[in-house]
Amino acid sequence: MLANLSAASSGLLFDAASNLSGGMPLAQIGDWMPSWATPIYAISLGLLLGAIVAAVFYGLLAALSLIPPLGKLADNSTRGNVVSLVIGVVVGGLLCMRFASADEEYAQSLYLPLMMMGIVMGYAVVYGMWYRTRQEWFDILGEGIVPYILSTLGVFTVVGLLGTIYVTDPMQFVRSIPQVNLISNGTLIHEVTVPGADPSVGPDEAVFHAQDFDYDLRSMSELVIETDKTIMLGDGANIAEFSRKPARIDAGERMVYRYEDRDVPPLPSDPTKLHIQNRELDPATVRFVITSVPKVPEISQAVAIGVIVFFMISALVAFRQAAPRVWALALSTAKNEMAQTLYLILLAIGIFGVVVFSIYPFNTLGDDIRMFKDSSVMLIMVLAMGQAVWSAGTSVSDEIEGRTALTVLSKPVSRRSFLLGKYAGIMMSIAVMFVIIGAVLLLLMSYKPIYDARETARATPGWQMGFEEIMTTIPVLGLYFMQTMSIAAIAVALATRLPLLSNLISCLVIYVIGNLTQPLVASARGENPLVGFVGNLIAIVVPNLNIFNVQSAIDSGNQVPWIYLAASFNYLVVFAVAIWMVAMLLFEDRDLA
Q1: pTM for the full predicted model
Q2: Would you state the torsion angle of the CA atoms of residues 256, 257, 263, 267, taken in this order, to the nearest 10 degrees?
Q3: Which are the contacts of 375, defined by CB distance < 8 A and separation ≥ 6?
Q4: E strand or H helix at 222, and its extent?
Q5: For residue 535, what pLDDT is reported?
Q6: Share of the chain above pLDDT 90, in %
Q7: What pLDDT, in 10s, does the model give residues 314-332?
Q8: pLDDT computed for residue 199 by the predictor
């Protein structure tokens, strides 16, 4: 391994020396720089859009806070909670109607995440227009983990915008943003009535009637045409004007065109040239169902990242303002953990490891990108889990043993708030680790296809490949963050009774068994009833962490669908509630004196 790494490093130094002495470094950079800069630029637009929408949204709420009934609505916590829940249920219901109801196959997986998003936004609205929030915005943006996360995202955005000079037609990405279908599903239905044919002429001599409706084939992902009469679609009023053979659709027939199938569209590229011939005597009703996507389809995923940024800011505002005591404990815990030397060492190891994996030749005959992704996300998760267990031991177990917890609980802070604040603070520090190392990983992931192509003397791949690799990495990071949340919840619960070393060993055992639960249950089927009982018992007692483990999907090169994150989130919520109940049972009667 060291030999391969040394060879790779020597190769990089040789390339750098060649660029400095070869006379054409700028030309070489110009060959691959657009393929690297364009994905970063597209994602930067999404991040910038999320920040702008958040600024506008909370600017409007700040203006509403000047109206006394609205600005003082959250002065009474009971009233603020009730109004927040009412608004949250309404927003969640609307989200379920838009997204869950439209997809019956995955509706059950979407209901809980969408309702929770709605409730968070309900709290964000009520407490966002609180007069105290308007006065404390500079404090909100400058405390805790917020500056670290915003700075990381800001640097990523600046890097992407600086690469604009290498992006071909950067304004095309900007123009595609309004075409993203967030509210609707991008489907447009248009019906036209075509007069019947003249009885005095034959069907072939029937008139082609011009149609007046606009469409764009470049942004059309699917087209469905239905008619109750036999018609012909042409690109001119007569044979002399035809540039291609007219398309025939019989009565009752349903013609479907999909871009992904590389079908030839039955409509002319210029909508003003569309003419329809009705080959029957009665008027024909022709129905066009057009599903459109942005001219740059990848911008939809970039906008989704912007939505995540907006929701993340809203969640922080809602958490800080609606639960100030828990937030204060979480903020103190996060600051203490992030100031520890171990945290900085793990962060440095993560960044260094990701950089090394990006240049290390895995010698996998074309699967280096997959190995780079697998190794990097696994490294981030392992470091984050180690930090989470260590933080649980130092911030919960040590404080209980050192009587510090007794001092905190002597104030108006309940044991429930104490555990919630500790857990939230640990996860806030872990979130910063994921964001910082993840941002470095995504920057390198965009360059990895280019690096491999240059190493094997292949043509530079298009920017779409780098963008696809980035967007397939983000769901994996999300799932591994959920797995880290599960282990952290267990660590906090055990820390109420166990010291650090015992907690570390217990979490390690649970992690190993949790990732083997599903194969263990499957192997127990059809065997001895006692074996099956033990396997099922383990599956009930130990969390099924295999749900968050998508290494097999990465190894096979399959993309993890975003909908899978919703199903995994449902399991995480149920598991977190169960662990929370166990933690309270362990901590409720713990003698702190």
Answers
A1: 0.84
A2: 120
A3: 357
A4: strand 220-227
A5: 65
A6: 40
A7: 999 999 999 998 998 999 8
A8: 85
- pLDDT score of 366: 65
CB 447 within 8 A of CB 466: yes
Q: Within a 13 Å sphere around the CA of 457, how many CA atoms are in the beta-carbon half? A: 0
Average pLDDT, the chain: 84
Q: What are φ and ψ of residue 256, in 5° steps?
A: -120, 130
Q: Is residue 18 scored above 50 in pLDDT?
A: no
pLDDT band per the 50, 70, 90 thresholds, residue 9 = very low
Q: Is 236 left (phi over 0), alpha (psi -120 to 50) or beta?
A: beta
Question: In which residue are the tokens 């049972």 written?
Answer: 585
Looking at the DSSP assignment, which residues form a beta bridge with residue 290?
A: 188, 223
Strand partners, 277: 208, 232
Q: What does the block give as tokens for 18? A: 């060649």
- Structure-token pair, residue 131: 């007069």
Q: In 3D, which of 175, 176, 266, 275 has the Cα closest to residue 226?
A: 266
Q: Treating both helix axes as pointing N-terminal to C-terminal, what angle do 415-455 and 324-338 enclose, rounded to 10 degrees? A: 50
Provide the 8-state DSSP code for 224: E
Query: Residue 288 belongs to what H/E stretch?
Result: strand 284-292
Closest CA to 178 of 337, 292, 21: 292
CA distance 347 to 151: 16
Residue 568: C-alpha distances to residues 93, 540, 591 (Å): 21, 17, 36
Average pLDDT over residues 79-106: 86
Query: pLDDT by residue (tens digit) across 269-314?
Result: 888 889 999 998 899 999 999 888 888 888 989 999 999 999 999 9
DSSP SS3 for 120: helix
Question: 478 pLDDT band (50/70/90 cuts)?
Answer: very high
Strands 187-194 and 254-258: unpaired
Query: How far apart (Å, rounded) are the C-alpha atoms in residues 583 and 489?
Result: 9
What are the pLDDT digits (tens) for 363-408? 666 678 888 888 999 999 999 999 999 998 888 877 777 667 666 6
Q: Which two tokens stand for residue 593?
A: 């004196």
For 92, 111, 525, the CA distances from 114, given in Å and listed in that order, are 6, 5, 36
pLDDT at residue 3, rounded to an integer: 42
Question: How far is C-alpha 39 from the geometric centre of its chain's CA atoms?
Answer: 15
What are the angstrom distances between the C-alpha of 384 and each of 291, 317, 320, 371, 490? 42, 25, 24, 20, 14
**CA gap 376, 356 in Å, rounded:** 10
Q: Is the predicted pLDDT of residue 499 greater than 90, yes or no? A: no
Q: 579: how many CB neighbours lie within 10 A of its CB?
A: 20
CA–CA distance, 376 with 427 (Å, rounded to integer): 20
Whether the Cβ atoms of residue 543 and residue 511 lie closer than 8 Å to each other: no
Q: Which residue has the tokens 């999404």?
A: 46
Picking from 460, 303, 462, 455, the residue whose alpha carbon sits closest to that of residue 372 is 455
Please calculate the CA angle 504-510-513 and round it to the nearest 5 degrees.
Answer: 140
- Percent of the chain, pLDDT > 70? 86
> The tokens of 264 are what?
């030839």
Three-class secondary structure of residue 259 per DSSP:
helix
- Rounded CA-CA distance 56/448 in Å is 36
Residue 272 has what DSSP assignment?
G
